Amino acid sequence: MHRTAVRKVVFEGVLDANDALAQANREKFDRAGTYVINLMSSPGAGKTALLERTLERLRGRLRLGVLEGDVQTTLDADRLSRFHVPLVQVNTDPGFGGECHLDANMVRSGLSELPLDGMDVLVIENVGNLVCPAEFRVGEDARVMVYSITEGEEKPLKYPLMFRSADLVVVNKMDLLEHLDFDLEQFLAHLDAVNPGVERILASARTGRGVDEWCSWLQRRVAPS
Amino acid sequence: MHELAIAESVVRIASTHAGVRRVTRVYLKVGHLRQVVPSALAFSFELVAQGTPVEDAELEIEEIPATGKCRACGAESRLESFPLQCRDCGGFDLELIAGEELYVESLEMEAHPTKAGS
Predict the structure, then answer these.
(1) Can you give the pTM of this predicted structure?
(2) Judged by CB atoms within 8 Å, which residues 85-124 of A form the interface with B?
(3) ipTM of the assembly?
């Protein structure tokens, strides 16, 4: 049989389906009056450590909740359980060997176990990965990136996607500066090259440096004066 | 590897539009700033398309260069690297007008539905 081909114009965004779900999440957050942070970084940059310091400082002042995303294990959720805040763990493993990021649908599934009513801030701790999470909106109000100085100065240029989409960069592990050949000025110049003037906080979740500044940033965002 | 998730989405979009017909080619536009690795995307696509109307279809990836329009002088520049800078006046205040695309532009399909076993 003679086969002929036809061409059909589609013009459909690859992320449209995700973005629609993200928008639905966002409406749910807005209805509940919950401000949502999408916390992103490479593995091991210090997202969970920063969250521990944050919960220590802001518990009792802000009603916080956490959605933990990991490929496997509940280790991070276990670390945070001592704070007795609403907490849900989403493992991405049922995907193809474990998705490397949270998408809007995974966050939606986690929300069924989180009471949003009365929650001022929900922190979504994304899967540790310097590329993929930046591509998927989940319904967040702001994107906060944790970057550790052990990762070197050049990463903003090599992996611009996440740096470009960040509203705030927390530069973590500053207590190690004297032990490393890390050129802070050069890193900040690279950061400004990809995301000019982006807010940044020099911090150490270990020593507590910058944590007050970060908590103030968060409080200003939640309740603008 | 966000290429796998992107491939899943591309296959889903193509399958939905194809209905009962077999897709032979998928035309995808990818902006340079999307940080998509074409070989990883092609590999993922082949894998994910198995058992769908998109199986064995060719994935045609067209990469779109990043282009900025200068807010100071109005010139358009192709942007090869960061910082994004106007090639005409050297200004850094640019509006990005291309380079962030990520969409299925069109599909090539068989004109008639494939009969089972044919």
Answers:
(1) 0.91
(2) 96, 99-101, 103
(3) 0.88
